[in-house]
Design a protein that fits this description.
Helix content: 40-55%
Strand content: 15-25%
Number of strands: 12
Strand order of the largest sheet: 2-1-3-12-11-4-5-10-8-9
CATH class of the largest domain: Alpha Beta
CATH architecture of the largest domain: 3-Layer(aba) Sandwich
Mean pLDDT: 97
Low-confidence stretches: none
Structural class: alpha/beta
Shape: globular
Radius of gyration: 20 Å
Bound molecules: 3-isopropylmalic acid, manganese (II) ion
Distance between the termini: 21 Å
Oligomer: single chain
CATH superfamily of the largest domain: Isopropylmalate Dehydrogenase
Number of domains: 2
């Protein structure tokens, strides 16, 4: 029995989560697995009403689950930063989900903004460090509010944190078994403390993985290659901030936020799966948002739960849909409503 915690969140989060759960139910029937869900309300709405965010007791409760399925975080009436820090980042950090796994896969060239790129050209995975770096929230103001003000934001990188992320990336590249190429994406030419540690550790670990080809690219160049030669990449490993930035670009070349999913992974604990786009307030409640990213997140969650066949079937059902009926992956332009897209995926299953 898989115990799944569901956090619908804000904006269009609940709508896409419903479609994800619809597909989960169909997959459970088809592949004969049992699961139960419990919904946790960590929304902006609740915060505005009660002042409550994710508390330590909530984290303890979530630790009893096998996986978490999250919709979206972000509410137009809540000051930016509050929900991000106290819901999403709080969960990632407190549950030690130190990997953010973001596949970038083009399912249909019609949805790709790059000229002449085919599905086989865009098929890589970004392994983003998810617990340290600039996201640690370290720093200070000096002389705040004066003309002499200094704002310091520290990138915090520990040997242990860097090593566990790199090791995961090497193991992942090996297991993925495609081109067995791992690219470190950094900025060794300027950020000479953080990226010195990353590069040294990367080279050390590479010795243990002679079957994995290694490569290095600066982050600025990486964004260029994403557009020019995405086919060069197999697995990319990078820090938290660079990973955040390059995966938005990654999402665009795979067809947009409507299809991009990710997993916040704790390899020995509870992991959390989410569509990587935001809460899209302007589309809320209109039944127009694309639920495929959330459905793909369910696919990733099933894989993580050991239901590999079901995971593959969900992905195949999505591929079938985007190769045939769907007009676009963008909200309001799919040719179908949110709920209809969910139904079509279920049909394809
Ligand atoms: C993401 C998001 C988050 C991040 C925000 C909402 C805190 O952009 O998951 O990529 O920066 O990690
Ligand atoms: Mn982001």
């Amino acid at each position: 029995m898989h115990k799944i915690a569901v956090i619908p969140g804000d904006g269009t989060g609940p709508e896409v989560v419903n479609e994800g759960l619809k597909v989960l139910e169909a997959a459970g029937k088809k592949f004969n697995f049992k699961y139960e869900t419990k919904t946790f309300d960590f929304s902006g709405e609740r915060y505005l009403k009660t002042g409550k965010l994710v508390e330590d007791a909530d984290v303890e409760a979530l630790k009893k689950y096998n996986a978490i399925f999250l919709g979206a975080v972000g509410h137009p009436d809540v000051k930016p930063g509050i929900l991000e820090t106290n819901v999403l980042l709080k969960l990632r950090f407190a549950l030690d989900q130190y990997i953010n796994l973001r596949p970038v896969k083009l399912y249909n060239s019609n949805y790709c903004p790059l000229k002449d790129k085919k599905p086989e050209d865009i098929d890589f995975v970004v392994v983003r460090e998810n617990s340290e770096g600039l996201y640690k929230g370290m720093g200070e103001f000096q002389n705040k509010g004066t003309k002499e003000e200094v704002a310091i934001q520290i990138s915090y990188n520990t040997r242990k944190g860097v090593e566990r992320c790199l090791r995961y990336a090497f193991e992942f590249t090996r297991k993925r078994n495609k081109r067995k190429k791992l690219t470190l994406c950094g900025k060794t030419n300027v950020l000479t403390y953080a990226w010195d540690l990353w590069e040294r550790t990367f080279k050390e670990l590479a010795e243990e993985y002679p079957d994995v080809t290694t490569d290095y690219a600066h982050v600025d160049a990486t964004t260029m290659w994403f557009v020019k030669n995405p086919e060069w990449f197999d697995v990319i490993v990078t820090d938290n901030m660079f990973g955040d930035i390059i995966t938005d670009l990654g999402a665009m070349i795979q067809g947009g936020m409507g299809i991009a999913a990710g997993g916040n992974i704790n390899p020995s604990g509870v992991s959390m799966f989410e569509p990587i786009g935001g809460s899209a307030p302007k589309y809320t409640g209109q039944n127009v948002i694309n639920p495929l990213a959330a459905i793909c997140a369910v696919g990733m969650m099933l894989d993580n739960l050991g239901e590999e066949k079901a995971a593959k079937a969900v992905e195949d059902a999505v591929i079938k849909l985007v190769s045939s009926k769907l007009k676009s992956l963008a909200a309001g332009k799919m040719g179908y409503s949110t709920t209809q897209v969910g139904d079509l995926v279920v049909e394809n299953l």
